[in-house]
What we know:
Chains A, B: InterPro entries: BlaI_family (IPR005650), WH-like_DNA-bd_sf (IPR036388), WH_DNA-bd_sf (IPR036390). The structure is a homodimer. Chain A is mainly alpha-helical. The first copy, chain A, is 64% helix and 8% strand. Chain A contains six helices and three strands, in the order H-E-H-H-E-E-H-H-H. In chain A, strand 2 (59-62) and strand 3 (69-72) form a beta hairpin. Chain A is elongated. The first copy, chain A, starts with 10 loop residues before the first helix and ends with a helix. The mean pLDDT of chain A is 90. Chains A and B meet through helix 1, helix 4, helix 5 and helix 6 of A and helix 1, helix 4, helix 5 and helix 6 of B. The first copy, chain A, binds a DNA duplex through helix 1 and helix 3.
Amino acid sequence: MVTDQQHKPTESELEILQILWDKGNCTVREVHEILTLEKEAGYTTTLKLMQIMHEKGLVKRDTSAKTHIYTAIVNQQKTQEQLVTKLIDNAFNGSAARLVMQALGNHQSSKDEIEAIKEYLDKLEKQQ
Amino acid sequence: MVTDQQHKPTESELEILQILWDKGNCTVREVHEILTLEKEAGYTTTLKLMQIMHEKGLVKRDTSAKTHIYTAIVNQQKTQEQLVTKLIDNAFNGSAARLVMQALGNHQSSKDEIEAIKEYLDKLEKQQ
DNA sequence: TTGGTTATACGAATATTTTCGTACATTCGT
DNA sequence: ACGAATGTACGAAAATATTCGTATAACCAA
């Protein structure tokens, strides 16, 4: 068993990570406030989750003041990569292209975004 | 609460669904054999999972013979869409484009696949 | 200073998912 | 015909993930 591999975040943890990635540093209160825009949750539930994330090494925290400040440790890119890989593997028979088309087909992208993707594809082709 | 929405498959269930989507019809034994190429698992574990999937309405089965034959009921496309949407939402701040680039960047795609994606993008642009 | 508000810690209840043992029925080869 | 192999059913343990109540400490405003 590989030991130094990143703990895979659960769904709830991912929700929190997103907020931390976005904001940088947050108190539990701030995270909780944002979370409860979308769904019902008790404050201590959020607190507990973040404490567990700390135990797992997903986040670090500054406890020098009464109100602790949390920051994501796990890298957003790396985590996204992990999740995408898993999904490709798990639901798209290993074909990234199929996932890409599925994603593009069902989600509105702006002209700019589409252009960006095309450029990216050109670059990939040249690399090959 | 919405009642007629598809039950979201768990990870283990998804592994099994993939096999069923691929093969069409399968016995528990067949599914189990394929599963255990990748990971350790007891036969009755696989059996139980498939029985649960049946209860949940993810699969149907023909029980006319001793050895039951299972078939996926849930649609592959729809399930993929559901999962992709969730991931975009959950880890990519709602940006499909970002997921797409992540997927393309880290997973080898053939020239043909890249071409297919490009064509697809052209079509999307024209639609806009 | 004192009471209300806002924190953290933490155990424990719930819920969900995964795993497996055991009982029992059917089938098949010899 | 009968024992081994193979199948299903099902309860329940184990592993994970989620939720929350309660104790207690720190802070702040009057």
